[in-house]
Amino acid sequence: MGTCLNALLASVCLLLVYTALPVTSSNSQNVDISCRNGWLKADNSCYYWTVADQVTWADARRECQSRGADLMVINSAKEQNWVNVQTQEENTDGWWVGLSYSVDDVQWEWLDTTVDISNIQWNLEPDNYENEDCCAINEYGKFSDDACREHYGYICKVPRTKDEACPTPATDGRWSFLDYACYFISDPSDTSDRLSWTDARTKCQGLKPTGVAANMDLVSIVTADESRFFNEKLGDLSNAGMAVKWWTGLNDQQAESIYKWSDGSAWNSSYTPWDFAPSTDRSEDQSCGLMYTGGVVDDTKCSARAGYICETSAVHKSTPLGCSVHWIRGGKHCYRFQNQTQVTWTAARKNCQNEGGDLLKIDNVDEKYWFDHMYLAGGRGYWTGLNDQAQEGDFVWADGSAPDNTLVQWDSEPDNAHNQDCTVIMSDGSFSDQSCASRAGYVCKYTKDPGEPCATGWATYQQAGCYYISSVNRNRGVMWDEVKQRCLDLAHIYDNELQAFYLYIQSQAEMTWLVSQLQLQPDLGMMWWTGLNDITIEGAWTWATDFANPVDMTLIPWDTEPNNYGGNEDCAVMLPGGRYNDLPCTAKSYYICKSAAGLGVVVSSMVMWAGVLATLLAR
Question: Which helix (H) or strand (E) holds 369?
């Protein structure tokens, strides 16, 4: 990874979101990886970008083929938009792509002649000056015809193989990829594959293609990104005039009108709004949720027949960095998950202490976010350190410290039935009290020195957070939607598992520190994008990073704003003095990224381990 980093700093290498690089460790698992070292991953393909090799179009194609790939063919507007963001990172004359002029067909054609050429964004081209029969793409995502003998960099592309995180459309077009998840969307035209809710869930749980993590289930839509993804994706799959619907995991089978996803996660109606208000008549037995093409849901009888959407984690590798054998590192902590033998709470704690740790204690929102997405195997749950053995109802961690109650989500508990003084964490991250004499698996944890708190170029706040202020070495602003990718790209320069987010603020002390950093910038007339937005509901401001919500509005000093000037100012920037201003999300501005402290696999990235841990624990 160091070689690629050096190359990047010399403007010859790009590391993009979803790049999966191998990490060597004495405790590493033998794992498959999604893209080779130095390649970029997005959706169902791997990409190789270079401006270091300046070659002819024919030589560029040979270089790609020698890598088991070919020059890039752009298959969709979505892929084109993704490419446009990446090309802005380089100042170059262009990259060769897999588009050329066919003398036989008298037209421009992609190497894959089945791909539509009507959406090509020409840059005042083609003009066929001096027989320009090959195509290059520039840093603005525009195409131009050039003489095939010219020397440019090039972009190679290869579909991800079936051994990688999600199967590819080439092998099964029903699979899709988003962030950390793989989705299987049944073919709406296949009437033989329309099932009842129970049968659909069974079908999902039985889908285990090579390379995909276990523990599939009907889809749970728990983020705004997922909501937008399915709103677009299902529309693309629908036939005009055809009412298409798919089963999701949404249901109220346990308690009337109390809707949850089948994996136990909470339902948020802002992500999946009702098409029609659900029935409250239990006799109608409308207890299962369907999703329609517009992303809305409706309740109906679970015995009805429909298509279905399945989901699993796209992560299927584990690299414990610096932790003991059988322990997995997340940020500055090491964890051990044990469910092969069921023991009492006291025995579980003793086992943890014998290995230098203690029973699980959740210290912050990042850790909670990880466990909320764990889907831990084993129906009995895992012992944690939380207990009220000393004083009934007064819960403390095993070390005697009081819990932050906002980090403890009870599952209709505690009820202290039969002296239930100890707690387990369940598959959905919720807590349940149980008798300390009962038997369950357990989670151990110990703290590991994370080394340098932040990567080079990132500022450190109290050893707890890392911040990237783009004006330090960026000379161009970006639109709000582009910030998410930029932050991830910057984080992945140093560690492909490191996660970074839009800026979110959680305390006045953090705000005061950040303002001091902004006032060190060379141009005090600048503004920086934050994650604050009211895109979903006008006037309802939220952080773009879901786990940081709700917003503490006492920490948001508006600069005589927001005024929603023009009716479209839905995204917020921060001024050097710390005040906020609303702007159109399409405006250009600098930006601030935030990540948890700790070089390597940090706490905020722990959600990336959810699928792999579920797989390991199910063994």
Answer: helix 365-372
How many structural domains compose the chain?
A: 4
Same domain, 95 and 188: no
Task: Please tell me whether residues 361 and 309 are part of one structural domain.
Answer: no
CATH number of the domain at 536, please. Answer: 3.10.100.10
Distance CA(440)–CA(417), nearest Å, equals 17
> β-strand 501-502 against 590-596: which pairing, if any?
antiparallel
b/e map 281-314, b = 16+ CB within 10 Å: eeeeebbbbbbbbebebbbbebeeebbbbbbbbb
Is 319 within the bounds of a domain? no
In 3D space, the residue among 473, 487, 496, 470 whose CA is nearest the CA of residue 4 turns out to be 496
In a shared domain, residues 301 and 233: yes
List, as one string, the DSSP characters of 554-600: GG--BSS----GGG---EEEE-TTS-EEEE-TTS-BEEEEEEESSSS
Last residue of a domain, one of 137, 159, 181: 159
State whether 345 and 442 are in the same domain. yes
Mark whether 501 and 478 lie in a shared domain.
yes
Is residue 335 located within the same domain as residue 478?
Answer: no
**How many other CB atoms sit within 10 Å of the CB of residue 506?**
17
CA nearest to 54, candidates 2, 113, 11: 11
- In a 13 Å sphere around the CA of 287, the CA atoms on its Cβ side amount to 16
How far is it, in rounded angstroms, from Cα 173 to Cα 441?
A: 39
**What Cα–Cα distance (Å) separates residue 455 from each residue in 105, 163, 490, 599, 601?**
52, 32, 10, 6, 12
pLDDT digits (tens, 9 = 90+) for 223-262: 777 788 888 788 777 665 566 899 999 998 888 888 888 8
| Two structure tokens written together for 103 | 């003398």
Domain end residue (candidates: 159, 185, 217): 159
Regarding whether 482 and 421 lie in a shared domain, the answer is no
- Position with higher pLDDT, 81 vs 604: 81
Pair (375, 432) in one structural domain: yes
Provide the residue range defining the domain that includes 99: 2-159
Q: Which residues contact 91 (CB under 8 A, 6 or more apart)?
A: 11, 139
Size (the chain), residues: 619
Alpha-carbon separation of residue 226 from 46, 222, 233, 612 (angstroms): 22, 7, 10, 21
pLDDT digits (tens, 9 = 90+) for 157-195: 987 644 445 665 556 778 877 655 778 899 888 888 999
Phi, psi of 53, rounded to the nearest 5 degrees = -90, 105
